[in-house]
Amino acid sequence: MLQLPLNRIILLLIFYFVYWTIRKWLLKSNWLLFLFGIAFYSWGHVFQGALLITLTFADYLLARFIFPVKRFRKAGLIFGLLLNIGLWLIFKFDLPFLQGLGTQQIPLGISFYTLRKISILVSCHKNPKERVYSFIEYGLYVSFFPQILSGPLEKPDQFIQQVRYKRTLSGNAFIESVKLIILGLLKKQVIADNLRVIVDRVFQLDSPSRILALVGTMGFALQVFSDFSGYTDISRGLSGFLGFKTSKNFNRPFLAVTPREFWNRWHITLTNWLQSYVFFPIRRVLVRKFPNNPTISLFFPPIVTMLVSGFWHGVGWSFIAWGLYHGILIVIYRALRVDTRLKEVKWPGKMSLWIISSIFLLFGWLLFRAPDLTWIYKTLFSNGWGISDNTLIVALSLASQIFLYSLPLIVYRLAMINKKFVKIGEPIFYAAALVVLMMFSMSGIQEFIYFGF
Amino acid sequence: MKHKKLNIFMFALIIFFVFVNLHIATVHDIGHYPIQRSVTFNPYIRTDYRKKISDEQPEIIILGDSAIRQLNEEKISDVTDRNTLVFSMPGTGSAYWYLFIRNQLFLADHWPDYFILFFRDSTLTMPEYRVNGEYLIRLEEIASSWDEDVYELAINGRKSAMVRFFESYIPLFAYRSEDYFNIIQWFRNTLPEKILKADKQMVDTAYKAVFGREQVNDLLWEELLLNKDNLLYLPESLDLTGCVNHSFLPAMLRDLKKMGIQPIFIRVRYRSHAMGEIDQDDLVLYLTELTEYIENAGGIFLDLSSLEGLSAEMYEDNFHIFSVYGGQATVIIAQELAYLLK
Q1: Residue A148 neighbours by CB under 8 Å, 6+ apart
Q2: Is B215 within 8 Å of A205 (Cβ atoms)?
Q3: Does B91 touch chain A (CB under 8 A)?
């Protein structure tokens, strides 16, 4: 959605104009939103669009006609989950029969919309008589175009509530949306896209020194944050223009002092989803099965939840290891009761905790980004620190560039630091951001500037 | 943002915009409007290629990138029974090839009967492919200050009327690439200089040593190359109608025909082809249209992607043949050429 050609931007503007022109007629405006979303998604990917509509329709039939019949309810849910998760797995693991379907590409956003579909299926299953959604409500929840590719993952009730009422767009909401889009573009096109060039090169090295791996991992953490939170900001801005309020996905995650706090600040809507559909159900089952053994229900659910998260994020042992690692981290912090004792800790203690947690989390990013586990082993245990002339020069040079790209985020945070200063700092920040955007994003990413290659 | 904030925003935007533009106008010494930037290559041009052509008087000249580095010109001469010269220029694209035709081939004392260009997929209609960074240094070797048109098409690329308008009147826009470059270079070079007393040259050397080919994992290197080539397969790159008139292909065909040289364009075979991979539909359509375009303009098109003789084990990566198989591969390709030139 970020690299839209001019014709699609014009189409988007026309859509917004028509959308607000017909705002009086709620049903028409919802259908327009739904059809435009499907068309936008299907552009150049007709098969993927057809798949999305078919799956949504199948889910809707289940929710509308099967769930209300008590004896079919459970079977219907199992069928629906198997259908959605099964198809997601088939595409994720690139199973051979996809060639027969005429596609080898994983459908855009399938990882996200599968989660949305599971949310609404489970929600309808829980209370099929109260949660009776029309097809357009159901379809819009699944295919809402600002969110279909990368979230945020809204809760069905929260979202559909907004679909049911006429939307309005106040001057303030409009300005908030513009701000989100400027900030999102700054994070995505200026910070993340440039950092990607640096980070990719470090992780393409056969045998990097530890210091380079450290710098590369720091760059990667910043890249992922800027990329994803930038995307979320843009998505929230686009939703705002449609009169929708959508969820915040990031809340200064790098300030987290424990891994659990990190997950409550990072990709918040996914964390909530995992809690609702993986963590709590597992814990409920374990508490019921092992009422006398609280240790199992305390330690097992976080590990399984984080394993599922790792599996969802990507294919390969690195992602499984990443999930397992985060699960174990959460369990260790739980065992030490760090989170519960946090309120008693004074600032020097919190600072120490922050440093320790940041190091642990940084290792998690290394697991996530490294080409494979052997690479990590070699880098950490066989390669030296690399304080030789060339490596040190490069490490310093890369660190300096990573600092350059973290500057806008630091300045943004400083501009927001106190309420009095926000009045002046915030508008100045956005004005400067627009000028920086003009210079950096319009130049295109030029890899040769960094590496001369 | 309330009313007051909006005012501050607008005021700050104007101040920033004016200040930055004034600064850029001063730094780049902009004297008049609209901004006219006459940028071209430096005047120095190497002449040994044209001398070689003049001395050896080949009937066939073959040009391409590193994909043809194992082609043996003696073997080709033997099989085709025509004196052949091969120029394998690693890291080159259509801008380089056109400059070679214009500044080396045409300025030589002898012109061949056939000019054969080995290319990959959409490179012929991608003038901006391989023209920056180290590639620019290669281009500079065979370009001169009179090649302003090539510079415009290859380096400045395809720009909309709106972008050109902004570039003519807004200094920030006109010099955005240079300023972007300067800012990054400052951050890239300053810290090593301050802390380790390493000047720019030392930083460049360090980057080359740390990120050189030999330091990169083989599999990841191939991935890197493929990623770099991604732009060859973007929908807009495979739209021949939209690309061809903004490329060097029409000029190549026109100029070669005008000089009485038969242009032949050969699409190379990849290891992936040898492993049974089939081209995607949009690429097949592009190649069909490209064939038609070249043949209508009097050129010859040959697609080696289905040449069975070049098997997967002969390749060291997706594009390059192992040196031990160089002779064998040359004979297989030369036989195709001989058949074509009959």
Answers
A1: A37, A41, A108, A109, A112, A113, A142
A2: yes
A3: no
Dist CA A325 CA A307 (whole Å): 9
Share of chain A residues as helix, strand and coil, in percent rounded to the nearest 5: 75, 0, 25
CA distance B285 to B298: 20
Within an 8 Å CB–CB cutoff, is residue B28 touching chain A?
A: no
Q: B173–A438: do the CB atoms touch at under 8 Å? A: yes
Residue A165 per-residue DSSP state = S
Q: Which of residues 351-390 of A touch B (CB under 8 A)?
A: 371, 375, 389-390
A383-416 burial string, b = 16+ CB within 10 Å, else e?
beebeeebbbbbbbbbbbbbebbbebbeebeebe
Q: Residue B218's beta-bridge partner residues? A: none
One-letter amino acid for residue B134 of the chain: E
> Taking chain B, what is the end-to-end CA distance rounded to the nearest angstrom?
76
Q: Are B128 and B157 in contact (CB under 8 A)?
A: yes
Q: Which of A4, A180, A193, A400 to mutate to test the interface with B (most CBs of B within 10 A)?
A: A400
Across the interface, whether the CB atoms of B184 and A450 are under 8 A apart is answered yes
3-class secondary structure, B106 = coil
- Class of residue A365 by CB neighbours under 10 A (exposed 0-12, middle 13-18, buried 19+): buried
Supply the DSSP string of A365-407, one letter for each residue: HHHHHSS-HHHHHIIIIIS----SHHHHHHHHHHHHHHHHHHH
In Å, how far are A161, A280, A312, A346 from A251, measured between CA atoms?
25, 23, 22, 22
User: Measured between alpha carbons, how far is B340 from B342 in angstroms, rounded to an integer?
Assistant: 6
CA distance A400 to A404: 6
Rounded CA-CA distance B323/B317 in Å is: 12
Measuring CA to CA, which residue among B91, B106, B117, B93 is closest to residue B47? B106
3-state SS string for B13-79: HHHHHHHHHHHHHHHCCCCCCCCCCCCCCCCCCCCHHHHHHHHHCCCEEEEECHHHCCCCHHHHHHH
How far apart are alpha carbons A81 and A84 in whole angstroms?
A: 5
**Structure tokens belonging to residue A321:** 């290891």
List per-residue pLDDT tens for chain A, 453 residues long: 445 566 778 888 998 999 999 988 999 999 999 999 898 888 877 888 888 899 899 999 988 888 888 888 889 899 999 999 988 888 887 765 555 555 556 788 888 889 999 998 898 888 877 777 888 998 999 989 898 888 789 888 889 989 888 888 888 888 899 999 999 999 998 899 889 988 988 998 888 889 999 999 999 999 999 999 999 999 999 999 999 999 999 999 999 999 999 999 999 999 999 999 999 999 999 988 888 888 888 889 999 999 999 988 888 888 899 999 999 999 999 888 888 888 888 888 889 999 999 999 999 999 999 988 888 999 998 888 877 778 899 999 999 999 999 999 998 888 887 777 788 888 889 989 988 888 776 655 555 555 544
Asked whether residue B242 carries a pLDDT value surpassing 70, the answer given is yes
**Residue B268: which of B317, B220, B216 has the closest Cα?**
B317
**At CB < 8 A and 24+ separation, what contacts does A346-350 make?**
A350/A257
